[in-house]
Sequence to fold (362 residues):
Amino acid sequence: MLFDLAERPWLKASFAPAADVAPPPPLLLDAPDIRAPSIAIAHAAVAGPVASLGCYTLRGAVIAGPCHATVEGAAVVAPDLTPAYWRKGLEEGTLGDAPYRCGLPVRDVAYPVAVIAAPGYREYGHWLLDILPRLWTLAESGQAPPDMRIALPSDTPAFGLALLDQLGIRRDQLLLHDPAAERLAPDRLLLPSLVHTDYRLHPASVGFYDRLVAQHAAPGTGRPSRLFLSRAQYRRSDMPGRHLVNHETVRTVLEACGFTTIFPERLPWPEQLALFAGARVVVGEHGSAMKNLLFTPPGAVVVNIHLLNNTQSQIAALRRHHLIYLGAEDLRQDATGRVDYQVGIASLSRCVAAALDVVGWP
Fold:
């Protein structure tokens, strides 16, 4: 059962009108030995409409689960709050039963509460695409009263809290709650919109990402403009992950072409902002770290290894990046769920050559 806010537009205060997302630049290499033919179709399909930016205000709503809201037991959805795969998960129950745990006690909260979390709140990429921008849409909508608190699940990862610290959100502004133990009934529920509709990024959102760089990037010059984003040191205890079997060979080839290998998760966030804001060519495995390309200006070239979905195409549409998808070879998955794969070195070299043809070889 769903409570669809698309049928109640009067509940939303908008500050940026609905828009159309332009197609991204064509794939820089469109060859079957580089990627599957279907990828070019998925890449071009990111164009389309995106909803207005703003914030919904609800009364009588209950916060249920880590990031959901309900009205009279129905889960609240909207195109600008609920990407299609989240909505499908709510309809089919694959996101869990959190929104419908009617037996949990309800705690009344006598002040306005905003929900900014998303189902992927434990992943860095979702913080960049889904969560942090909602602070911006909340502020720009003019719907954030001084006594407002921001609801977050109590298991919000430390890096997420650190990002909020970086943006000036005080800990006493947060309302941490255990979604497995209680539901929250605020005086008013504020639901700021995402900056995308099914990850079609609103053109106005480029201002948000530029502002993050301007306000929070580490100072200094002389940083490398060619980056290889390595996942070799990335570990999560709750996820088996992915493993590039010939990582060291890939690293050697790229460093011989002037690339600097970085491990983004080991760098302070302001340094990450500065690195990506100055990047001209980025090679990396598909994953959260590649979402940092939201901070990379137009004209950059991106080589995305092992396509998982088309979010990098969405970012390319917003940032006008030249994009190459490099397919993986010998894809394998073991009993733990870990995926091992490798890339063809000749294909990688061809991708790098195409990238440097665009930005210059020196």
